[in-house]
Amino acid sequence: MGGPIRKIACFFFANYEGRRDREGVEELRRVPTTSYRQGILTYYVDGAQGTATLTPTDLKNMDPLGVGENQAVLATLQKYPLPNDPTLNDRLNQQGFRFVANEARKFDTYIAKLDYKITRDGRHTIFWRANLQNDNSGGAPQFPGRRPQRARSTTARALHSAIPQCLTRRRSIRSDGVLQDTAWKTLEFLCRRK
């Protein structure tokens, strides 16, 4: 979209491009087994052909203070979904949880330009250009029903001139919530004498 703001003297141009992607991706996470959620620790016995278990009572007897398992940790373990893939991890205390997550990606680009002729002959002009690229590259949630983990990147750039043949540039990149200051306040003058 574009056109004159003031006939012959001031013009503007604006553009937007957007893209949306959505797809189901298979995710695999580690979750505690049913026995581990109850405080039962299973482990391989060194040098033997088998496993051994420690019950909450065993752990309490081993604890010098006699406290045993931490109830807050057991409550947290109960919040995980039940495993549905026994082939993953050690198969004793952790197993796999497979699910399909809906992954959404969003890409937006904005471009704007403003030209202003100070004199009628066009020898003295002021212009301003800006570009904003805002990419949001989706991400799967840790578990179903939770918010997805998103990676976001934003780039902004402005170019303007108040003096003929002199340009001032500004640029900023924002990625994953961190501002990367790339010549944001550095002025570059590209002045030439004719």
Q: What does this entry look like structurally?
A:
- This protein has a domain at 2-26 and 101-180.
- 9% of the residues lie in helices and 48% in strands.
- It is built from 3 helices and 9 strands; from the N terminus they run E-E-H-E-E-H-H-E-E-E-E-E.
- It has helices spanning 34-37, 56-62, 71-77; strands spanning 2-6, 10-32, 41-44, 51-54, 94-117, 125-136, 152-161, 168-175, 178-180.
- Residues 176-194 have low confidence and may be disordered.
Record the strand order, biggest sheet.
1-2-5-6-7-8-9
Strand content: over 45%
- Compressed to H and E, one letter per element, the order equals EEHEEHHEEEEE
The radius of gyration over CA amounts to: 30 Å
- Which range best describes the helical content: under 10%, 10-25%, 25-40%, 40-55%, 55-70% or over 70%? under 10%
How far apart are the first and last residues' alpha carbons, in Å? 35 Å
The biggest beta sheet reads: 7 strands, antiparallel
List how many beta strands DSSP finds. Answer: 9
Uncertain stretches: 176-194
> Taking all residues together, what is the mean pLDDT?
76
The secondary structure category is mainly beta
**Per the principal axes of the C-alpha atoms, what is the gross shape?**
rod-shaped
The number of helical segments is 3
